[in-house]
Amino acid sequence: MSLKNLLSAAAVSVALLSAPVALALEPAAMVQILSVIDDRQRNGGDYKAHIYLEQKEKDKTDNVREGFVYRRDADDKLMILFSKPKTEAGKGYLRLDKNLWSYDPNVGKWERRTERERIAGTDSRRADFDESRLAEEFDPSYEGEAKLGKYTAHRLNLKVKPNIDVAYPVVKLWVDKDTNNILKREEYALSGRLMRTALYPRWKKVFSESKGADVWYPEEIRFYDEVEKANSTIVLIKSVDLRALEANLFTKAWLESKSR
Amino acid sequence: MGQLRLLLQVAFRNLFTSKINILIGGIIFFGTLLVVVGGALLDSIDGAMSRSIIGSVAGHIQVYSDESKDELSLYGGMSGEPDLTVLADFSRVRPVLEKHPNVKTVVPMGTSSALITSGNTVDLTLARLRDLYKKRTEQGESAALKESIDSVKAHVRQIVALMEKQRANSKVVLTDAAVDPMEVEALARARTDEFWNSFDADPFASLEFLENRIAPQLPDGDLLELRYVGTDLDTFQRTFDRMEIVDGEAVPHGKRGMLVSKFFYENFFKLKTAFRLDTLKQERDLNGKLIATDPQLQRWVKENQTQTREIIFQLDPVKTHQAVERLQKVLGSKESTLDKLLPEFFTTTDENFDTRYQQFYAELAPLLDLYRLRMGDTLTISAFTRTGYVQSVNVKVYGTYQFKGLEKSTMAGLINLMDLMTFRDLYGYLSPDRKAEIAELQKNSGIKPVDRASAEDALFGEDSGNTLVAEAATGIVDDSKAFEGNQGAVYREDQVARVYSQEEIEKGVVLSTAVILKDPTKLEQTMEELKQVGTDAGMKLRAASWQQAAGFIGQFVLLAKLVLYFAVFIIFVVALVIINNAMMMATLQRVREVGTMRAIGAQRSFILSMVLVETVLLGLVFGAGGALVGSGVMTMLGSSGIPANNEALYFFFSGPRLYPTLSASNLIAAFVIVLVVSAISTFYPAFLATRVSPLQAMQTDE
Lengths: 260, 702
Hints:
The structure holds 2 protein chains of 2 kinds.
Chain A (H helix, E strand, L loop, with lengths): L2 H15 L9 H15 L4 E11 L6 E10 L4 E8 L7 E5 L2 E6 L4 E5 L12 H4 L4 H4 E11 L2 E10 L9 E7 L5 E7 L5 E15 L4 E13 L6 E10 L10 H6 L3
Antiparallel strand pairs in A: 1-2, 1-13, 2-3, 3-4, 4-5, 5-6, 7-8, 8-9, 9-10, 10-11, 11-12, 12-13
Chain B lengths: L1 H14 L3 H40 L2 E5 L24 H9 L4 E15 L3 H19 L3 H28 L10 H11 L1 H5 L5 H12 L8 E9 L1 H7 L3 E6 L9 E4 H8 L2 H16 L7 H12 L2 H6 L2 H15 L6 H8 L7 H12 L13 E7 L5 E14 L6 H4 L1 E5 H8 L4 H14 L9 H6 L27 H10 L4 H5 L5 E6 L5 H14 L4 E5 H4 L2 H38 L1 H9 L4 H37 L1 E2 L3 H7 L3 E2 L5 H28 L2 H6 L3
Parallel strand pairs in B: 3-8, 5-7
Antiparallel strand pairs in B: 1-9, 1-10, 2-3, 2-9, 4-7, 5-8, 6-7, 11-12
Helix pairs in contact in B: 1-27, 2-25, 2-27, 2-29, 4-5, 4-8, 5-6, 6-8, 11-12, 11-16, 14-15, 25-29, 27-29
């Protein structure tokens, strides 16, 4: 061993010894955390949720809606359909493969949208309602521990994997050490600019017959727009139903039939 | 009297004797010419611009709510749409304004803009096919329907074949990593006979496969910003009589509908290749540009050669065959593929351009849809309302229109007209009922308001009451009745057929009203009075002149005028200094003459008058000459017109040519200015002349 190598080995040992008490997680352990987060929210069968959305913007009346989210995780299918206020009833989104379609019964027309679509004009995106796919979409790195109110959290830095289209390519996650639930999520543009912050203060679980285990969901999510600082969105998942859905639910024809 | 005659005699005698007088005369001559021509041109442009703005949408005065945060800006502001408070009920505002004796007509308006998105060629073709299958499901099979379905299906099949060919070509440039195997697989499946043979077994599933797996492989469709004025179309057309329908027809009385501006239609809805050919022709014919020398023209030619996909994708197999035959004949070529024939055909030079242009419209155009939007088609417009909800409406396009004289003006040409009912739908005004419904939803949500700055403490702190583990009851979400009462399809049909009464049109939200005056010269006074009339009737109204309402364009008009007036002012200051200096020299040259006159008894006042009368006469004679020549120039320009050879000038000239007129006031103003300037510049030299003493004169050397 040369002197140079010896010196660098010494430097590394010093660095390691003086590191914070919480040791960095191994990549495998981090991927494991992401898989747990994904897996806990996934249901083997179908998923239906009653949601509430509220968008606040500067100098504007609040944009408020209620609606339903339908998921068939096995086939990667998603539909969001609004029911209230009355003028919004029947408007919705349908995700099929990589396509996000939007539909408005008042005009009877389908339009293809992108991952960056602000769902119903709010600060939420398609992925916020869809099945969680963190392990599949991102590569994690460890940034240490942090306190968040009464919780202690792992801070993970996620970078999107190549050839995957997501709304934000860089994500920072605060994951509760005890429960493995997400507490906070910061999303960045490729340039490094903070675009959106999300807080998840309440989590709930419900037993799924089809999965044979619990399915977890955030009861409340608060999104803060970091570009238009005055804008924010609250999403409530009021209740979740895990019974099987109609077979042909995730088709354009089904959505159209709702407006006849 | 005798003295005046003497003074005049002296002045006439001196008029042409001195070189300096000729110089001064020359300056006065050109000064007058400039004032006459410049003044008349300025007035004519000002008049034309006012006509452009008043006659297109603004009217003389725009009245809107005084509670508005921003100023009204009809052509859109620098930072998007102005924030205006609505006039909640036009039927209440109209009678109040019409009571004023100087008000001729009141037109309701709402100006805004929206985006129109359209999918790519495959999306549009598939949407057509989906509609046909839906029709078959509802009405049953018919021979005509089957034929239409088969034709569109053949077209889709051809597009898929073209896409695969392009993919094969692009393989050369793309690395393997950039090729998505899912896309390749989907394309391969859509090429098989098996797929097309079993298409009708489950047409909607087949369509979804094409819509979700094939269509996204093409680049995105178009995104277009559409600016519109919602108005009572009948009253609008009666009031703004420069408006004329070009294609199609006016929107029938009381119906929903839209008139697209002809300029906008040509620029944004026409097949790009055809539009480029039109522009090339115009640049060559009107502006005398040549493809050989002008890089912009060369770029258009190049784009026509390379961007042929829009044409190729549009043609179904039968038409493709026809197009190939026609191009072969025209070009005398044996080439059998369209993607080789088209670039050859569009290789235009100054020599062959006119022939090719004519051939394009005679041979190719009949096979193509020259416009993406045809008269009678329905356009889907989506707008973000003031409340954040997206509102989409279908509106039938009845025709195109233009303002006479403003055909090529970009500013006037970007405004499209629609009925008030459609405008109100897009605007999404929150009625009290809707407000109450939203408030109820918010109340039932049970959300605790949290301040953003302290959100983390409030949501994650010990006192938050929030927990990360809670058992949810096995939920039953009942959505069976959630969408009941949603009558999308019924609503769509009802909109197309319904005829609204005048009362329905007028009773409701507008953003502003255009007021046409009987006597436009009393504009300022009427504006003040209209505000008062509003206050008396319990409405807070704000009035803006056409110039203010035109927003930055109005400001620009004002600025242009100021710059021109300032330039004229500077020219006169310079003239004043030159004339003054010249007069000084002239006076100093005449020290002997003046001295002698003083010696033989001329009073100082006589000397003063002499110099003044001389200059005034100089001014009159040369000024008259300048005015005469100026009038001649104006008469010439007035009959031949000044061509507007770019789009901005079109707006300023209010048409393709400006025919300036000369008014008596221009001539009088010119004379007054010239005389005042020459008199002022003479005072000091004349005063110096009176100071000359006979003694001084006699001591002066020759």
